[in-house]
Amino acid sequence: MLGIGWALRRVIKNSEDFFLSGRSIPAWIAGLAFISANLGAQEVIGMAASGAKYGIMTSHFYWVGAMPAMVFVGLFMMPFYYGSRARSVPEYLKLRFDEKTRGLNAITFAIMTIFSSGISMYALAKLLELVLGWSFHWSIVLSAVIVLIYIFLGGLTSAIYNEVLQFFLIVLGFLPLVLLGLKDSWKYMDSPSHNPMGMEWFGLVMGLGFALSFGYWCTDFLVVQRAMAAGSMTAARRTPLIAAVPKMLMPALVILPGMLAIGLHASRGGFLPIGDDGQPNYNLAIPMMLAHYMPTGLLGLGLTALMASFMSGMAGNVTAFNSVWTYDIYQTHIRPGQTDQHYLRVGHAATVFGILASVLAAYSATRFNNILDMLQLVFSFVNGPLFATFLLGMFWRRTTGHGAFYGLLTGTITAALHYGLTLPRGAVPGIKGGFLGAVLHIYPSEMALNFWTALFAWTGCFVATLLISLFTKRTKTDDELRGLVYSLTPRIQEGAMPWYKRPVTLAVGILVVSALLNVIFW
Hints:
By secondary structure, the chain is mainly α.
């Protein structure tokens, strides 16, 4: 990893090279980086933990919670992102709406990436502490230094090529753990009391499959940045579609080991360590499975795969953070009009700050026995309302800057109110909800609370943006919105391209296969 950063340092000559890889990455590289940026600790440790905690239901984070959204961003949203030549998602919001909307999104996104990076750092430190006996605190320092060096040297290009390498390491490292096939299915979605996640079909489809899923895959700059680095518009559209193919198969690699771990825990007793809350520490499902099943040589491969996933998650979030901080906060509000080399140095400094802030965030993850619960909570506050803003902004030209800004605020406040007035079963008021005093509803699980928080946030933002836009004046003309709004943008012509190479063909195939998987395992 450090070698890749060192080798690529000579191609980083300006800020676009550092932050967007000069927009020259091939589609298949960008596609694997697109999925690898998401294949960090939250995916490997979090999905395995959820497999142990919620069972086969976790697979729908992929087939309901990823496939439709990845197709949507590839076909409909990448033409706006890539065609506008925006350097980040917040910059697109400036072009479509105004500066205040961009600033609000930049701040909330920067905070979210720090928490996500911290989760990866925490997971790696726990792994090294459990398996190798290393100090938790020194493990955090070591992981921070490694990621800092290779991003500092090679920027986004280094992160992308490392993510591709890490993708193959993850696949090879976890294949030996896939010993048994999936046997159970989702036959119990008619009532929340019939499944371990405590979700009925409406909450699952609308909370996860719509608000959280589309909010993450369509608006999160962490993944969108990989597609924006592609070499052409067609490559950018193909990037999330290429990523969707291996994404469909990931449940076999990351969820199944968690299900096996809880099976061993139930049959043998005490397989998973018990946390301070008296519940099994689901975050340790993968490390315990590796230690239980792998002989010495394969254990090294499995540990390498885990370390690769954590580094990938940290690097992805830090590169997204330094881009948003430099372009959307520093250049816009603090020191505009400086030279390109000045902003390149600021990007380097932002990388150092992002790593240090991630260290602090890593310690907050110790409060959750499933890090995916914590991550989805963060997403519900940020990405849930943001997708409502994008949906109206891209497909309704009447949406105004005031509507977008105050709609985002309303959505975030709605999420906070809902979270502060509800609790998951067995939790006490505080960091897991109920902090406003009165508890109006008890959800069966933390994940159920997250899904409904995202849906409330999306609805609050959508309704507020719609109403405020109707009562405020447009500040952008149709000419200014050309290329930013669907109805005002010329359709992409692909007549000369063979049908089997067109993004829409790949998209249809992905939707058909994911629909079959949902039918089989529902």
